[in-house]
Amino acid sequence: MRILHVTDCFLPRLGGIEMHVNDLATRQAAAGHDVAVLTRTSGTDSDDQRPFAVERLSCGPLALGTRGRVQDLRTELGIDVVHAHLSVASPLAWTAVRAVGGTTPTLATVHSVVPDVPALVRSGVVLTGFPSSSATFTAVSEAAAAPWRRAMGERMPVHILPNGIDPEEWACRHVGPDNVFTVVSVGRFARRKRQRSLVATLARVRAELPASQRLRAVIVGDGDQMHAVRDDARRLGLADVIELPGALTRDQIKTVLAQADTFAAPATLESFGIAALEARCAGVPVVAMRQGGTGEFVRDDREGLLVRNDDEMADALLRLATDRPLRHRIAEHNRSTLPDMAWPAVLARHEVLYQRAVSRIDRERVPRRLGSMIST
Hints:
There is one protein chain. By secondary structure, the chain is of the alpha/beta class. 41% of the residues lie in helices and 17% in strands. The radius of gyration is 22 Å and the shape is elongated. The protein folds into 2 domains: 2-164 and 343-365, Glycogen Phosphorylase B (Rossmann fold, 3-Layer(aba) Sandwich), CATH 3.40.50; 167-336, Rossmann fold (3-Layer(aba) Sandwich), CATH 3.40.50.2000.
């Protein structure tokens, strides 16, 4: 199958969508598919080393003038399926869906949580010209799908298509000292990821932690909020507690996770939470907000602890810090059980939904019966 992935964000920019599209395209190419990626992210010479083609458009933040190139690329490559990866602000991906969604099998995957305001979502569908009658619509989690389902109902079915992971790639054993409670968090330093709220939470944890334990926190990532997070740590007296190593490679993140006693995911609008899934596969108990997509692979008191707000997150971290049997039980469970999002299952799900997209277009192409074309 010839597959074209369209994504506004791609490597070398680091983030959940960027890594997922690269991993997905790599595995599809290994399975024998002919894969290409179209993006508006500027790139590097490493594109030549990928097992799939990458075309990078210089089109500006609004992706103006890209409709024709999407259509030309579909024809030049003989594309069988276009897979658009969408967030709230994805002008290139939305353009691709509008450009080919009515004539080429198209799968659209939402990677973010939109406001749960049905009238606003319906207006967005109309304004973007989304071909809901012909394109197949998916979301990375039930949390991401819910606002669309409530807004569109049966007019636009939303299928679940989660991100994938290789659990064995993240498997590791804990190597941290017993008298240090290490909290790890990984993510882009953006307002919606709420690292600043995590710093405030850690201040309370440190104040209430028994004197026999020392708190250590490693917050991995980079972005616009980095300086504010560093300033907050200093202001709250946590400069000797919180480490900010910046963006790390996967191998480096795995090394950090091997030292972790728990993983904190403070975002309240998390559509999936691939970093939390990586921590879960590394055997680390996860503390996450109940309302996000992370709760679909982290069950309360099984793979971690689910909370509703920052106060409960502080309580959960303190509970894990002081209840070593609980922490060890969750860690052992995470090490010994596999999540449903392992790549073989996720790739198979893609195949099913690609075929569904093909079938929808085929039905659109079937000529109507003559009688149905005669006005009565």
